[in-house]
Protein 1
Amino acid sequence: MTKPTIIPFGPQHPVFPEPIHLDLVVEDEKVIQGIPSIGFIHRGLERLVEVKDFQEYVYVAERICGICSFIHGMSYCQAVEQVMNITITERAAYLRVIWSELSRIHSHLLWLGLFADGFGFESLFMQSWRIREKILDIIEATTGGRVIFGSCKVGGVRRDITNDALKSIVDQLLAYQKEIHEISAVFTKDKTVQSRLVDVGVLSETDAIQWGAVGPTARASGVAEDQRSSGYAAYGQLEFAPIVEQAGDSHARTVVRLKELDQSIDLIRQAVSKMPEGTIDVKVTGFPTGECFIRTEQPRGEVVYYLKANGTKFLQRLRVRTPTFANIPPLLKMLPGCSLSDVPILVLTIDPCISCTER
Amino acid sequence: MSEDLNIDQLQEITRTKFDEGYRLVQIGCTTISTEQFEMNYSFNRVDQFINYQTKISKEVSIPSISNIYPNAFLYENEIHDLFGIQFPGLAIDFNGHFYKTAIPNPFRGDQK
C-alpha cells in the first residue's frame, strides 16, 4: 500500500479566481481526504452595521459579492423591511425579480466560462463570456452599472424600467437563448467534456442534506429545494418549480445550471408579461426593531440573512450565511476517491465564491 | 420566530433533527451585552425552517455538534475565531487559525 502524501492545493491556483486552500491527502493519484482552509481575505463586513446607517448599509451588502451583488442587497432590504413591517409595491417586487434573474443568468454564464477554462476548453470559455457581456449590457442599460448596480433600497427599488424597454429585454433574451442552447449542447454532449464530468464527484441526496448542500449543488443530487419556491419578491405570482437532477455528479451540477438559464429567461418573460403599473418605492420612517431570518436564492444557492435591531439607526447584528460557505463541506464529501487531476474541476462545480464566504 | 434552547439539550435536539432528515442551515452568534452571547441553531426540512435560540455567558463552552452534522465544524470554527467561544469535540479544529484576523476575536465586543 502506498504511503499517504499531503499535497497543499491553493490558495493561489490557475483555476481558482479567488483564494481557497485544500490540504489533499493522496495515495498515488487518488484523493483520500481534503481539508479546507479559508479566511485569507476575511473582511468583517457584518460588523459595519454597528457604525453604518441601516439604510446606507445596503451599499455595503451589495459589495459582499462582486457577482450576485443585487441579490445580497435585496436580501438585506427584505430583512429590514420585514422587521419594519414595510410592504413594497408590486412593481418594485417584479423589478426585483427581473434584476435577480439577470444576475443569475450572468453569474451562471460566468461560471460556465470559468468551468470551461478549468478543463481547457478555451473557445467554450470565450463563447460563454461573449453571451454574458450581452446580459451585462442589459443590466447597464437599465441601471447604469454592470455588476454592482445599486438598484435596490429599503422600501423598494431606485430605478424603474419603461414597459417598452422591458419588452425589448425579453426580445433580446429570447435571441440570446438560441446562442445559450448552442453552448449548452457542447457542455452536455461533447465527449471530451463528458469524460471530465460524468460520474466524477458524486454526492448522494442523503449526503447533500446531511452535509448541508444548497443551490445547484443540492438540486443536482435530487434535493428539490429552491428558496424562490417560498414566493419572496414576486416569485409567488410566477410559475416556478425547482430544477432537479438525480445523478449528483459534476455533469448533473452543470446541467442544473444550464437549465436554470432557460428558467431565468422564462421567469423574466413571465414577470414582464405580468408587470403591474404603479410606483416603485414606499417611504421609510422610523428605525428597525426586532429580529428575523430571510432566505433567498442566489445563483450559488440559499443565502441566509439574520438581522437583529434595537430601535436605533444602527443594527445590533447582521449575519450572512452565504451559499459557498454551506457548500464547502459537501465538497469534502465529493473529493475522496477522485483523481488528483479532477480536484480543480470538482472545486469549480460548487461555483465557489470566496468573496461572499469571506464577507 | 425562534424556539428556546437549553444548551444542555443541544446534542439531544440536534440528534433528533438529524434523524428526522433536517439540514443544518447555520449556526450564528450575536454579542448582546458585555457578559452574554446569543446563539442561533437553524434547521430546515423542505419548507419547515426552525431556529433554536439561547443566551449564554461569554465564558461558557458549547459542546460541538460536528459529531452529528459533519458540516457544523465550519460554523463552530468561525464562531470560535470571531467570538472566542470554545467548542469541545470539534471534528476538525483549526485552533484559532480558521480566519486570519488582525485582532483576536474581533466580533466578541470587548473592543471597538
Note: DSSP finds two helices and four strands in chain B.
Protein 2
Amino acid sequence: MINCILHTKTRAGAQERGAIRVSLRRVGRVGIKFREFNLLAFKEGFVMKGRATRLILVIALGFLALLWGPLGFAADKIVLGVPTSLTFLEGEESLKAVQLAVSEINAKGGVKVGDGMLQIQVETIDIRDAAPGVPVPEALLGLEKIILEKKVNAIVVGPFRSEALMAGMDIIAKYKVPMLGTIAMSPASQKKLMEAPDKYKYIFRVCLNAKYFVGYLIGTMKYLNEQFGFNKVFIMNQDVAWARATADIMIKNFFAKAGWEVIGQETYPTGSSDFSAGLMKAKTKGAQVILPVFDMPQSGILVKQWNGMRAPALIAGFISPLAGPGAWQTFEGKIGGAMNAIFELGNIPASKYPPATKFYEAYEKKYGKPIESGHGPAPAYESVYLLAAAIERAGSLDADKIVDELKKSDQQGVMGQIKFDESNQVIYGNDPQKEAIGCVYQWTNDGKRVIVFPSSVAEASIELPDFVKSAK
Amino acid sequence: MFLGTLIYGFINGVILALVAMGFNLTFGISGVANFSYGAIYIFAGFLTWTIFHTLALPYILACVLSIICAALLGALMYRFVLLRLRGMVVSEVIATFAIGLAILEAFRYMGFIGFKYTLPVFWDGSVDLWGVYVDYQRLAIVGIGLLLTVFLYFFIHHTRIGLAFRGIAQDEQTALSLGIHSDWIATLSVAFGAGLSAIAAVAILPLGTISVGGGYDVLVNALAVCIVGGLGSAIGVVLASFLIGYAQMITSTYLGASWVMIVSLVAILIILVIKPSGLFGKQKELEERI
C-alpha cells in the first residue's frame, strides 16, 4: 500500500515520500550517531585499552626499579647514612667531620668504582638514642628507616649509646649494610661479633672502645703514682653502659692489682646535676685522685663544684664538656688543673703528629669554630676515607666485597696508623706511627690544653692545682 | 661528712623552697594550676643567657629583663588559655602542661642543647664553714630564698593583692561579690608565680648548666614540695622543702646518687597515702574531716 502511494504523483504520495525522507534522515542521524557512538566506543575502547596498557607498563617499570638495586645495576652515587644523636655534641660534630671528608673526596672527583667515579651523598637521621628517656626500640626505628628509605650503601658514626648499638647489630646484619661506628664504645659488641662473625661482619668500630680508653687511664694513673705517689682514688661515673664498664675494668684490672685503694664509687643517672655529696665523700675519705667518667652535658657541674668545694684531689678522667677549648670560658676558668682524656687524636691538635693538627685546623677553617668534642669527629672523618679506600679496592658497592676490603685496611690517618683487629675494632696504642692513639691532656691555669700522656705526643708534664698536695 | 651533709642539706632545702615558691603562689594560694612552671624556669634561664651573650647587655639587666618577660609570659598564658578553662582544674593542668612541653621541646628543637649554656655566678669564690667549703653563689641563694620567703609571707597576709589572691582561692564567688575581679587577680597570680620562677632560675642556674630536661625536674620537685607541705600553706612549703632537701642529701650521701631522683616521688606517694592535704594543708579531704 505504502509502495503504491509512494510512487504516485499525488499529494499523499508526496506526503509519504516526505515522511520517509524525514524518517530516513532520522535513521541517518541515528545511524550517524550510531556510527559516532561506535567510533567513540571504538575510540574509548582504544583509550581504555591504552590506559590499561600504560598502567601495566608503569607497574612493570616500577617493579624493575625496585629490583634495580639488588640486581646490581650501576648506581650514580654512593649514599652514606649517618644515623646518630645529632643534637648531642659528639653526634653533631661527627656529622660535620663526615661532611668535611665527603666534600674533600667529592672535590677530587669522588670515589673510583670500577671504571667510573661516583660522588658521595650524605643522608642523616636523628635517632636520639643519647637523650634520657628515649627507649632503644624507638631509636632503632630511625636506624631501620634510613636503611630502607634512603637505600644507604654504608653507615658511619652509628648509634650513640652502646645499648642501641648492641640492639642495632641485628638490623645491620639483616640488611647487610657496612657500618663504621665512631661513638658507641662498649666491647660487648665485639664479643657479640666474635660469637657470630659471619652474621655481624658488617659492623666495624673506628673509635676506641672502653678497653683502650681504660688503657690510657691506667697509663695516666701509673704516671700519677710515679710522679706524686698517689694511690687513693674515688670513682664517679655516669650510669650508662660504657661508663660502668670503664669503671669496672679500672677497678678489677688495675686498681686492685696495682695496690691502689678505691675509697668509693658513685654512679650518677644521666641528667644528674648535683655532685656535692660525692665530692664530700671524696674529701672526707682522703681521695688523692677523682676519676670521673661522664659524657652528659651536666657533668661540667662536677668540676665547678670540685673547684668551689676545694676538694683536695686531682680530677683525672673523662668529662665530655671539658674536652673542647670553649670549656674554659663556659666554666669561667674554674677548670685549671683538671685532666681530661681525648679519645682519639685529631679531636685535639698535637704538635708532635702533624696529620692530627691538619685535620683539626681544616675543621676549624670550614666551620669557623674548633672541635669541642673529645670523642667522635676524628674517627668519623677517618671512616669516610677508610670506606672510600675499601670501595676503590673492591671496585664495587657490593656490601660483602666492601667488608672484605675494610678488614684489610692499613693506612696512615689523622688518629695514627689505622688497622682493624679480628673483631673489626681499630687497634689503639701509644705510638701514632704504629697504631691509632688517644691521649690525656691537662688544663693549664691560663686556659690552654697541653697533652701529658702518652709520651709519644706529650707536650708537658702534669702540674698539680694549688689545693692538691703531692704524696711524696 | 655529717657537717657537710647538714650544710649542703640546708642549702638544698632553700633551693627547693625557692623553686616551689612561685608554684605554691599560683596553685596553692590562687587555685590556678600552672604546670608549665618548670618550662618558664628554663625559659628564664635561656632568655638570660641569650640577652647576656647575644645582646651583650649587663648581666643584672639581663636577669631583670628575663624576670619581667617570664611574668609577661605567665600573664599572656592566663589571658589567652587559662581564662577559658577557669574552674576546670583537670583542663587547666592539661593545657598548662602542654604549653610547658611545647616550650621545652621548642628549645630542644632550636638547638639549645649542650654544656655551653651556663650563667655566671653573682660572686666568685668560696668560704670555709667549719671545714666545709661553700661557694658564695650558694650563700647568695640562701639569702635570696630567705628574703623571698619573708616577702611572700607579708605580701599574701598584709597587702590587698595578696589577700585578694587568698580570697579567690578560698571562695571565688564570695570574692567576686566583695568586688575582687577574679580574672584580673588570677592573671596577676600566674604572672607573679612565673616571675618567682624566673628569680629562682637566675639564682640557681649559675650552679650548673641550663638544660631542657631540668624543666621537668623543677616541676616534679615543686609539685612534691607543695603536695607534701600542703596547698595554700607557705609554712608547709618551707618545712616540706627542708624535709625533702635533707632527704635527698642524706640519700645521696649514704645510699647513692642513683636513688636521689625517686625521693621527691616517694615523698608525694607517702603524703598522699597518710595525709592527702599535706602537712599544713588547709583544704582537707573529706576522709580527713570525718
Note: The beta strands of chain B are 126-129, 132-135.
